[in-house]
Design goal:
single chain; alpha/beta; 10 helices; 38% helix; binds benzoic acid
Length: 252
């Protein structure tokens, strides 16, 4: 995952964890279970899972996120860990992951690590960006760069947004039995009113602006806003065109 600004993440992007309550219901954590929260960010969902009495470990590749998680929840265990290369000595009953797997662009390595870290019969419960996620925002960024500067290099895509078929096949190839998989739209309101989309692009979309000179970035974002306003702005709030993939899979 690229490194995000932790204080902005905490103050202006709380939707990242606020939408995950029903994913925890799907996980249905039980007292005494061992659960890994993969890509735990600043630990808010790790804390909610721990309230069930499960023993939870949160890992995230960003040391600043882990430092904040430890500050937020000093009694819980958080470790810096790479989602594409992690290993624990004690296997878990479940791996949970919200809004993180799309940052890991070698998905086969991620699934292999998840498999290795589960007990036989253990489950993966995950949600992340799926096929078509934020496609309106990405297309508007490319077209604004093209209008104001030059044809954009479209190879800098920093995310993995698979279809249900693609991700289910990947899980099955690694030996999982997929018991649930869905891809659905979730138009997601952004915080900060009029500045919501601007903040989202600065926070999450900076890879798309790498080739844009610093003094031109605001112009690009303003043009993106103008083009997306008819579809993604309603009564003072911007929305991101999120599409989520949600999966439950069991290690046979
Ligand atoms: C998402 O949660 O879908 C997402 C967040 C940041 C960047 C891209 C996607």
């Amino acid at each position: 995952m690229s490194h995000l600004d932790v204080s902005l993440y905490e103050s202006k992007h709380s939707f990242v964890w606020k939408y995950a309550a029903d994913l925890i219901e799907l996980l249905s954590p039980k007292e005494g279970e061992g659960i890994l929260d993969l890509g735990c960010g600043t630990g808010h969902l790790t804390h909610q899972i721990a309230a069930s009495g499960a023993t939870v470990v949160g890992i995230d590749s960003d040391p600043a996120m882990i430092a904040e998680a430890r500050k937020n929840y000093p009694k819980l265990r958080f470790e810096v860990g790479d989602g594409e290369n992690f290993r624990f000595t004690e296997p878990f009953d479940a791996v949970y992951s919200n809004a993180a797997i799309h940052w890991m662009t070698e998905p086969g390595r991620v699934v292999a690590c998840i498999w290795r870290s589960l007990k036989p019969g253990g489950r993966l419960v995950a949600e992340f960006g799926g096929k078509g996620n934020v496609q309106a925002i990405i297309a508007a960024i490319y077209s604004a760069i093209e209008t104001l500067l030059c044809a954009p290099n479209q190879e800098h895509h920093p995310w993995y947004f698979p279809s249900v078929g693609e991700y289910s096949a990947l899980l099955e190839d690694h030996g999982f039995r997929v018991t649930y998989a869905a891809l659905f739209d979730r138009l997601t309101p952004l915080e900060s009113g009029e500045e919501g989309l601007h903040h989202w692009i600065e926070m999450f979309g900076s890879d798309f602006l790498i080739e844009v000179p610093a003094e031109k970035r605001s112009d690009v974002i303003r043009l993106v806003e103008n083009r997306l306003r008819p579809d993604l702005y309603r009564e003072g709030t911007w929305f991101a065109d999120y599409k989520r993939i949600r999966v439950v899979a069991v290690k046979e």
